[in-house]
Design brief:
alpha/beta, Class I SAM-dependent methyltransferase, methyltransferase, 7 helices, 8-stranded mixed β-sheet, 262 residues, methyltransferase activity
């Protein structure tokens, strides 16, 4: 594990720490199958992954390690928490340590930071992102986002060393009425931008309209209806990523340029 000679002092504030079994399963599934993430993991000379701010229980860190090891069996997982009381002994090949945005001097190829920045002011996001990006290994990636308490509604940003690359919304097909219901789970960089005139507001409004237009396909199930809605979004000029497999979730991934704040 790569560390500096002196472990930096943790940077950040203690979060509420709420977590739960399988809470981050939707983002984990996306990570396992996303081509850019798979490339970063398979090409890395030192496949180190950091789960930043795992909360009061390390369960989601262990779940992430299990899932990512289907892509890179020899990867090393480190869970970091700024609260020393939450640092637990290692298990299942996962190490837990104290750390924040300085990432304890580590240089990971992949960082997950979920439900961390949600508790920060919006103006703190650019520096937090920059701090994480500076500490990435070459070719590294960051997934930063939020989800609800049961993990049924998730939204995240994928970043690399140059900045944000894409936004993804993922939800349980059977518990969400319309795409805009995920607005309350937008990452801190966007949650206050969901107002007329902003790109994220336009995207959610358009996604709702496409979802409504696809209503005749509802008898075939919400996943089939969402596939039609996605095609309608593409027809409207939105660059919606095409998944390489059938998804159990409803997923919408667009370039960051589609939602970048004005």
């Amino acid at each position: 594990m790569s560390r500096s000679h002196t472990t930096p002092r943790p940077v950040g504030v203690i979060t509420r720490g709420t977590t739960g079994i399988n809470r981050l399963r939707r983002s984990d599934r996306w990570l396992v199958h996303d081509p850019s993430v798979r490339r970063a993991l398979t090409r890395a000379a030192e496949p180190l992954v950091v789960d930043l701010g795992y909360g009061a229980s390390p369960v989601t860190t262990i779940e992430l390690a299990r899932r990512l090891r289907t892509v890179r069996p020899d990867l090393r997982m480190v869970g970091l928490e700024i609260d020393p009381a939450r640092v637990v002994p290692g298990r299942e090949g996962v190490v837990f340590a104290r750390g924040g945005f300085e990432m304890a001097g580590l240089r990971p190829v992949l960082v997950r930071a979920f439900n961390v920045l949600r508790q920060y002011p919006e103006e703190a996001v650019p520096e937090a992102w920059a701090s994480l990006r500076r500490r990435l290994a070459p070719g590294g990636l960051i997934i930063e986002g939020t989800c609800d308490e049961l993990g049924r509604r998730c939204v995240w940003v994928l970043l690399d060393a140059d900045g944000p690359r894409s936004l993804t919304l993922a939800w349980d097909p059977h518990t969400v009425e319309r795409p805009s219901d995920l607005a309350e789970r937008l990452p801190k960089a966007l949650i206050h931008r969901n107002v007329p005139g902003e790109r994220i507001h336009h995207l959610l409004e358009l996604a709702d309209r496409c979802w409504a237009t696809a209503a005749p396909h509802a008898p075939f199930g919400p996943r089939a209806r969402w596939r039609v809605a996605c095609q309608l979004l593409r027809d409207a000029g939105i660059e919606v990523a095409r998944p390489r497999r059938r998804l159990r979730d409803c997923v919408l991934t667009v370039p960051w340029s589609c939602v970048q704040p004005s």
